[in-house]
Amino acid sequence: MKITFMGAGSTAFARNVFGDCMLTESLRDSVFALYDIDAARIEESRVILEAMRDTLGAKATIQCFVGVEQRKKALEGADFVINAIQVGGYDPCTVIDFEIPKKYGLQQTIGDTLGIGGIMRALRTIPVMEDFARDMAEVCPDAWLLNYTNPMAMLSGYMQRYMPVKTIGLCHSVQVCVKELLNGLGMEEYIDGHRELIAGINHMAWLLEIKDKNGRDLYPEIRSRVDGYLADPDSKDKVRMEYIKHFGYYCTESSEHNAEYNPFYIKSKYPELIQRYNIPLDEYPRRCIHQIEAWKEEYQKLRENGVREHERSREYASRIMESIVENIPYQIGGNVLNKDHLISNLPQEACVEVPCLIKGSGIHPCHVGALPVQCAAMNMTNINVQLLTIEAARTRKKEHIYQAAMLDPHTAAELDVDSIKRMVDELIAAHGDYLPRYH
């Protein structure tokens, strides 16, 4: 068994995924191939993973591959490929994605999924993933690509529509959705044994059903508590609670993310909304700086004190691989193409997040049917941007980048068309060789 990790310089995440594998009987003695373009960071990953292997008593073989010239060798013969790359990193590309829009009066919180930040991140990442896919088609054509990189729907959707590799998009938010909601509303006693149905698009999949272990619908009680939650000035999840109030349903990803997926909450003419809804502007750049510094400190402690015991995490990756290898049925929330209208009132070209059954024969998305019309309408405001960004990546036509930005709900609510086009032009120029040439 060979598992290749693309972007293995992301040591903390690689540690979680491979640590989970080392605790899984059918995966623990696999070949773990680490690939990155940064030799120093991949060396850190190697040191940590070898120490973890020894701590856990696994017999995995850990191999390192650095740079484009070694990429095909890293992929050769892989059974599974995990993608967790960040093209352009925090500096320069994330900085560019935030600082240039600010000049035009456009503020963001995360900028990795939608909005102008999500558009630019997709456009610089898709060409790299195309190269991965071409190599996979040649040297590991039967491998599954497990994509963790954002913007999830744009990247996974592109791969599923245009690349000859089996791709599933994976996100953490589905696993924690119900727990965050019930904890936030003081309903923790209903977490164990609850039943749920979640479907929509990545980061805006809707909690369509939530029942306790006896099958009782919890939404009436949830809705009765929303106003009290919103009245508390210290509450942090207000955007998603507002979704319940105005659209009837909770969604998967956090309020700091969802604050920028719509035209309602980040508005220069209404600056008081930022405080009212506790919206953390520039949250992702702050996170990046903190994570970089925190990892330096953690790495030094690990070198000095050794690797502690690892507990299997909530990540889907090891469970998907275990399910396929051992033919053990397992359900996930996965990002797949909306073929045959899994969600009947969203377009077939969209990448949707729906329940998927995993077993020895692969990954099998489940039919959901129609979303509530208001939920589908909210999803469509995001899908429009996703499909146009994918079209821009496919055709290399700048006009589709303009159109994606013009139809982005937050961008369109803040800027006029001429400003949007100037901003896009400036972002393209600032990204330089991180983007292909657009005409």
Give a short summary of the structure:
The chain is 49% helix and 15% strand. It is of the alpha/beta class. Among the domains are: 2-88 and 113-171, 3-Layer(aba) Sandwich (Rossmann fold), CATH 3.40.50.720; 317-365, no CATH class.
Mean pLDDT comes to: 96
Give the percentage of residues in beta strands: 5-15%
CATH hierarchy, class of the domain at 2-88 and 113-171: Alpha Beta
**Succession of helices and strands:** EHEHEHEHHEHEHEEHHHHHHEEEHHHH
Report low-confidence residues grouped into runs of 5 or more.
none
Quote the distance from N terminus to C terminus: 44 Å
The biggest beta sheet is recorded as: 6 strands, parallel
CATH topology of the domain at 2-88 and 113-171: Rossmann fold
Quaternary status: single chain
Structural class category: alpha/beta
Compute the CA-based radius of gyration: 21 Å
Tertiary shape:
globular
Helix count from the secondary structure assignment: 17
Overall helicity: 40-55%
CATH superfamily of the domain at 2-88 and 113-171: NAD(P)-binding Rossmann-like Domain
Topology:
Layout: E1 2-6, H1 11-22, E2 31-36, H2 39-56, E3 61-66, H3 71-75, E4 80-83, H4 89-103, H5 115-139, E5 144-147, H6 152-162, E6 166-169, H7 173-184, E7 195-201, E8 204-211, H8 219-231, H9 238-247, H10 255-258, H11 272-276, H12 283-305, H13 317-326, E9 330-337, E10 351-359, E11 362-365, H14 373-395, H15 398-407, H16 409-414, H17 417-431
Helix pairs in contact: 1-2, 4-5, 4-17, 5-6, 5-14, 6-14, 8-9, 14-15, 15-17
